[in-house]
């Protein structure tokens, strides 16, 4: 887990799989051929599918009026792992804007699409998405660590109660059990909590100075 | 349906070259070569009997002046085919207008790439056609340590980015990048020379263009580096610059371009002779002029092959035609609107003439969107 950000490189663009959701026609063709020109791998699809396929890195998508229902349907299926979406808009009215925001679009390009500006928006979307993914990973890791600390703390409280240990002693006990069983301290703590759920409930919230939840973490 | 607007006199075509821009000297060679090609096309019967009518309007030195001149050409003279512009800022200034009028701009100058317009045909070298050969040549013959000097504008920054990538990939090192304003004051130039002497590079790579080139090469000629044989290399320095700086200053400098006037082929000798017969023995013949020349012939060939004299019909035919240009047979790439060209590297001899030292064995496909560069050897022939 490193907070240092990798420097984005223009060469990352090569081979980017791009899904283009636009009605077939001159504009769609122009967009697809420009994507090929800048070394991406575009794929044109219409109408807007019910969910996004897994094998794409970026999506270009129109939010034109007659496709709104399909776009809304798609929005319902989006998750944090969905690829970045670049919205193609012809109008800047509030209802279009609303849809763009709900899509979580990472860039917006004005229609009819021209070659100039595509490369920039594509690179920015990919970069923003990568940063979002890395932030999500860091958050998940921080959550996991917080929960593990809580579990260790609760387990120590249980040990203190059960065996009249001091906190220091309880800590050393946890460490030794972990070493003897080649397990992590968190796992040993989890085992202890699982054996004494009632004590865990009593121990947790009252002394909850290390975390809000005494529940065993999911790993 | 956008017509080429033939009148009772013929098809109007416009030139967009300035005689007072920072790059006026090379633009004069491009304007001359365009004129030569237009008269050759007309001598050969024009476009199936319809001659091309050359329109020229005065073009000032700034990008906005090119735009004004282009508007006059399109709106007053009804031109739909324009040959010209030189520095990227002038091309960028006119392109939106050209697109709006559904006209065609033929751009005969090397530039930094990363551009595509349906209404622009690019006949100068894309970065893969000149950066790669010059980088390979410098690494092999002079060493891995470079010093970059450029004018502070788009071409210099992008060209330097590519060159830096190439050199670093090959284990080389760029000692410094120095940027000078256009028409840089003498003390700024002197300061860069002092940094240069201190950095002791194996070569200098210049992206300085136009009049400043002469002053840069003069200043460099006075350094100890030059006496040690460190060369100055550039993609933009051409025969017109060498003629203006003189042989003693020019000697040893290196350039890469698809064409050099010393190229000894029938087509090349004929082109040089045609230029000098028409414009006098002092007319410099440059790579930009050669592109300006062959792009008129490519346009004419496409127009002759079109059923109708419309922009769309001519553009569709452009991808099918080829022309035996002074540099070799050239054609256009439909996907990128750029040209298949013949990369060459040259070194200025004691007479201040670029002599070709390396040449590609065949025309190289243009890659204007070169997102990944590789120095890997594509076979070059040593001359």
Description:
- The complex is a heterodimer of chains A (219) and B (383).
- Chain A is α/β, with parallel strands linked by helices.
- Chain A has 2 domains: 107 residues, Response regulator (Rossmann fold, 3-Layer(aba) Sandwich); 65 residues, Arc Repressor Mutant, subunit A.
- Helix content of chain A is 52%, strand content 11%.
- A 5-stranded parallel beta sheet of chain A has the order 2-1-3-4-5, sandwiched between helices.
- In chain A, strand 4, helix 3 and strand 5 form a beta-alpha-beta unit.
- Chain A starts with 16 loop residues before the first strand and ends in a 13-residue tail after the last helix.
- Chain B is an alpha/beta fold and 383 residues long.
- Chain B has 2 domains: 180 residues, Response regulator (Rossmann fold, 3-Layer(aba) Sandwich); 176 residues, Rossmann fold (3-Layer(aba) Sandwich), CATH 3.40.50.2300.
- In chain B, the strands form 3 sheets. Chain B has an 8-stranded mixed beta sheet, sandwiched between helices.
- In chain B, strand 1, helix 1 and strand 2 form a beta-alpha-beta unit.
- Chain B is globular and about 65 Å long.
- The mean pLDDT of chain B is 94.
- At the A-B interface, helix 1 of A face loops of B.
Throw out a few tags for this protein.
heterodimer; A: 219 residues; alpha/beta; Rossmann fold; five-stranded parallel sheet; 11% strand; B: 383 residues; 2 domains; 13 helices; 19% strand; globular
